[in-house]
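Human: Cast an eye over this sequence-structure pair and say how the chain folds.
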Amino acid sequence: MKIISFGDVHMATRNLDRMGEQMRDCDLVILSGDLTNFGGVDDARKVITDVRRACPAVLALPGNLDQREVIPFLEADGIALHGKGLVTGGVGIFGCGGSNISPFGTPLEFTEDEIYATLRAGYGFVRDVRPLLMICHPPPFDTKCDRIRSGQPVGSTAARQFIEEVKPDVCISGHIHESAGVDHIGPTQIFNAGPFKGGGYIVVRTNNGLLDARLEFL
């Protein structure tokens, strides 16, 4: 199975037109949050529709710049990962959207306790499955994937705690635009592709029961 994941779309789906070759054998696209710019259902639907033209199979999280109404919209569409989990192609996939509390009061922010509980709820759907793919819009705290321009880490301590406890094979995050990169927490690979308009995306392939994940750029 081949999965392509990107996030921080913010309505900018134009790069999909440049991904014909990458999408040709793609089995699933996972959107890791911030589909819109402070938008609701209508904007989120536009992004999902654009992505489905490239690959019909989609799963998605809301980000902190998506309105709260996007959560039930994704659930009703059967593609939600926020506090949800499912098994496809032998891979357990679960997630948490929004972000940890920021100074900016964006539409979808959660306390660290809420983030941990949401991850735990999603994991409950796939707890007996390996390999595990965790999709968490806020990156785990203190990695190469959660640093703002000053170098300060601003990620989620709950996401980090959960990774340390559960050890998913791969965690795909986003949220911090200037922190595209790859890191590890123990055996778990951590990815942040940066904003989609910057051309970053993650390719995950299954290989003999393992996940091979790579950060790529257009």
